[in-house]
Structures are given as structure tokens and as C-alpha cells.
């Protein structure tokens, strides 16, 4: 076997040029297939779960033990069984080009790690996963540490390698009886149960760790002794740390969805840190993401945990956490675009789509529970539709499992729908607080469905949208933060408020406001209506430079007038001309 490893290492070192860690994003948000454009598809059929050979993961997750050792009896083995097409159980490669590239990517990442990368990856290696994700809370992290009695045994990376045989001093990462005890208990669920590990699946595949395959994969110096003396049966696929990172991060994100995307980013970074340290390969951490996401969904879906989930939400939204924001703390995960780019890269690590690229997206049974607190105003089926329309394309290595866990893009799903495949109505009850009161959808929404905003909450559309079914506002506030946020259809304001926060907003169809509707826009803003406009209700103008003759709204032609216009100084008013509503004095 040693000779085989040396041969593989030589091949890996002389194959394609190494891929840089700063690969551009190669994934796209799933949209409806061309066949769906002519008429609205059967959404219920599209989002229905697909049973795998082992059944449904959320129903069978407790069978991830050493008593179940086949893809049809152990759901974790079954979940990542695509790996069987790359590597046999007898340590023979079946897809050498892919496995060689996997090692090349490992080597490139270790070779290009910075001092900051090294320090963070060491801490990730040595700390409890549950403690390691706390930093993604940013300004809320100090309150969490304080009110959960959280602690770690490792605060910095030593200047010299850890000695052979080094063992960490065990400390309890947090207290289950603390003020934030229910949150701690929720995060403990996946760590403490016997069926959350990856030991069984690792020993099923026996895939060798990358630093043992090729000398071009450089172990983190501080860890080189422990890595050199690790047990021979310490295998690579899938990554247990990455699995634990997603279990911890997504459990905490359920309790505190205000930092959902930041925690998802940190969860993915736990896997990336394992590659940086040389411990794991990209394929291994991609598999770990799948397993960790599925196990977390299974625990949240389990009816036995519903009471704890409710208590964790309440504890996290008390003054002990939500009310204890420390703005003096530097937020390592405070930049949205940086988080998005990092998360999307770590979905695929730049691998090409070498498999079947024409598979429809699949939504696993129970996957919607991962978004239960992040999109609380959506029904379970609506959250499934969100997952369906924001999922990854097919064809990437490892990710095309039977149920669909590999292609879920949780970062994008937290931004709301990726497409309105059918007519979609969203009702937000502001009295319930949190995201029920106010939310922001950032995706570029496509699809042929009509979007209806109802209820009392406020929703912002920030994407350059292309949905064609039109927009109806029946209550609350719909804010437009992008010129193309309305998509390409007609817009009806029946009741509630439309707020234009983008300076210029376009309506590609007709625009109509009813008596109970209010349009709010800047005095320096502009609404372009491609077709006819019908006015009623209230026009509220907010701060902005006043310019005589400035066009507030342009249209092909109009009927009616606003009943009330507010926000203008004395002596100013609006006039309706043939093709524009203008400021006048």
C-alpha cells in the first residue's frame, strides 16, 4: 500500500497546474428550467422529498452507528456514497484525475496559507467545535461567552510544534445550566448523541489523509508532531471536524438567526481550516458539510427536540444575548460580500462540474427546519421552495446525493427565494418580532410567478430581479432597494406601503395605487413606469434636494391622482403632465 501511495503522490505533483485559493465563484442560483416558463409548474411535485436507498435521513439518522455499515442501512454512508465511484473500500482509486486534483488543491491551500490562516486553523484544530463557532456572533460573542460560561483550553498557537503525545486539558466548553443553558443544550445535541460522528463512514471508505499521500501537502508546523504520529486508521473522508462545525454553527444559527449567514460562513471556515492545516482534503470537508447539515436538520426535525428549540430561541433573544450587543468588538464576519464569496467557494472548492449537469434540484425531507427561525413567516413548503430555487447546479463531485443535501446553499437560502416558480404570497406579522417584523431578500429572483406581499411586516427586495408575474402589495411595507427589484411585471399597491429606497426604480409593466396605498420615495428619486399608471392613495416624499420641474414619476400615460401628497415645503406641489409627475413651485 505504501508504494501505491508514493505513486499517487508523484502523479498528483505532476498533474494539472495548482488551483489558487482565490478561485472565482463558479456556482449559480438554480432557476426554473425552460420547460417551466410557458406555464407554472407543479411546485408540490418539484419540492417533494426523494427517498434514498436508506430511506429519509431525518427518519434514519439514529442508525449512524457501528451496527449499520452499508449505504442502505447507515444514512451517513448512504449520503456520501457518491465517493464510492472515486475510491474503493480496498484503497484503490477509481477516478484518479479527480483524486489527484483533490490533493493538488490541498497542497495549494497549505502552501498559500498566511500567518492569520495558520493561527486560526490551529485554534480550530484544538478547540471544541461549539466554542470555535462563537466568534461568528461578532458583537454578541462576549455576551454569549459570559452568559453561557463558555471557555476554551487554547488561546494561541505556540511558536514551537506541540510535543509528541500532547494531550489537551479538558474543559467544559459551556454550562448547560447557565443563563443561556437552553442554547448550550441545543448545541450539545449533535455532539453528545452517539449517532452524530463520522467514525463509521470513515472506516467504511478508509480514504488516506492528504499529508500522508503527498509531501506537497504541508502540515501546519505547530501540529506536525501530532499529525505524524496519528493513528494509521485516522482517515480523511468525510471530515469529522467539518461535520461538527456545521452541527454547532447551524444549531446556534437556529437559536440566533440574526447571525445565520455569519455562522454558516464560520461553519464552512471550520472545514477550510482543516484543509489549511493539512489534515483534510477539499472533498473531505465538502462531505463533512453535507453530513453536518443533514444531522442538524434531523435533530431540529425530531419532535422530541421541539420544546428545547423553543426554549433556546427564547433564551437567545433575551437580554442575555440579543440585548447585549458590544459594538466595540471587531466583527470578523461583518462584511456580507466577503462572507458570500467565502461560503460559495467552499461549497465546491473550485471543482468543475464533471458529473451529470442536468439533474433537477432536490429538497431533502426536513431540510426546511434549518431555515425555521431565519424565515419564520414562511410555511414549511415555502421554505422548501426557497431551498429548491437557491440550490446549487448538479454535477459537482460528492454533492449529487439521492436526497439533495449536497446541493443546499444555506447562505443563499437565507436571502429568500431565488425564483417565484408559481404565484407566491408572503404574510408577515410584525407583532411576532424578529424577521417577522423586518427582513431583506438579496437574491436575484427569477421565475414566472406573481409575488404578493401581505401582513404588517416590512420586506426589502435588494436583488436585480427578473421575475415576470408582477407584484401586489396587500399590507405592510415592501421596500425596493434595487432599480430592478420589481422584476418585469405589473405592480399593484392595494394596501400598505411601497417604499423606494433606491434612487431610481423601474416598473416594466403597469403601475397602480389604490385608495389605501401609500407610495414613499425621495424628493430626488425617480419611478419609471414603462406602461400606464393609475394613481390614488398617498404619495409621501422624503428628504432630498428639491428641483423645480424634476420628474418624480414617468409613465406612458396616467389616470387618477394621489389623494394626499406630503413631504413638500410650503409653496411646492406636484403637477401631472402627459408623461410625468413633476415637482413644481
TrEMBL record:
Leader sequence residues: 1-34
* Key words, A-Z: Signal
Among Pfam families, the record links this protein to: PAP2, PATR
Supply the Gene3D superfamilies for this chain.
Phosphatidic acid phosphatase type 2/haloperoxidase (1.20.144.10)
Looking up SUPFAM superfamilies in the UniProt record yields: Acid phosphatase/Vanadium-dependent haloperoxidase (SSF48317), Pectin lyase-like (SSF51126)
InterPro entries recorded for this chain?
Autotrns_rpt (IPR013425), PAP2/HPO (IPR000326), PAP2/HPO_sf (IPR036938), Pectin_lyase_fold/virulence (IPR011050)
Residues forming the Phosphatidic acid phosphatase type 2/haloperoxidase domain are 184-300
Task: Extract the NCBIfam families matched here.
Answer: autotrns_rpt
Name under which the protein is recorded: Membrane-associated phospholipid phosphatase
